[in-house]
Amino acid sequence: MRLSQDKLSELIEKHTCVADDVSWNRFSSIPWQDLQPELLTAKERSAIAFVNLIEDHLPGYFTEYMQLFPINPDTPLEACMYNRELYHFLVRWAQEEDRHAHVLTNYQLRAGLMPLEQLQQELACEGRKQFTIKFTEPLQVFTYALLQEKATLLYYKQLHQVVREPVLKFILRLLVKDEARHFAFFSSIVGAHIEEFGEQAIPLIKVVLQDFKMPLHNTLTNYWRRAMITCEAVGGHQYAEASKALAKLIHRWADPAARLQASTMVDSTQKVHAV
Ligand SMILES: [Fe+2]
Ligand SMILES: [Fe+2]
């Protein structure tokens, strides 16, 4: 199931047109002089280390996308055209996610939360582990990213609300804006699949929703313990909100038959396993 080339181009143009106008400097845009690390709680320190690791898995994530959407002599020309179009988004998205990882690393270093060598070693140690999205069907790959982006967006928003340290608050505001754009793009592409393929799209989405777990849940050292502390830092993460966002999307795009299927799907998967 592949979206028409015209529709894909339209969505990519819409996203990159906005993205090209949004920029911030990971070094000079941040008011580092205002840092007050003593205002961070122990749980917030753990949460920053954890989300830094999650954002930092970008090389593995990007490599996986390049394998899923290749541009090479073994790939049919039509698929290459589709993949090349998608690449405009992917490379931009990757650049923004890399900036998230880098600014969080810088934050940890400048706030004195972790020594340079230890942090670089931990990031490389986790980053070199094999990563797989598990899905290969484009709609499922995009649905997975939609849920992940929404869960991340909600988490950063919650952390932004509770944190008192001003520089972290500033950085989180920037991250929230970027993640909101990423979520909007994946919503538009999943929505376009629902519109184009109707009922056929729903079972594929359902599988992703039922089985959703955040990236690295099965590879990161002490993932579940660290994830729990990360949630506690904001007083509990609203996992179900990510699946509700998907439900809303389906209701907005789908025809009546697909809507009926979607209602059943969302009722049975209210609890999405995020972070
Ligand atoms: Fe990010
Ligand atoms: Fe993102």
TrEMBL record:
Record GO biological process: fatty acid biosynthetic process
Protein's name according to its UniProt entry: Acyl-ACP desaturase
Recorded GO MF terms: metal ion binding; stearoyl-[ACP] desaturase activity
Cofactor(s) the protein requires to work: Fe(2+)
Key words of the record: Fatty acid biosynthesis, Fatty acid metabolism, Iron, Lipid biosynthesis, Lipid metabolism, Metal-binding, Oxidoreductase
InterPro entries: Fatty_acid_desaturase-2, Ferritin-like_SF, RNR-like
Family from the record: Belongs to the fatty acid desaturase type 2 family.
High-level lineage: Bacteria, Bacillati, Cyanobacteriota, Cyanophyceae, Synechococcales
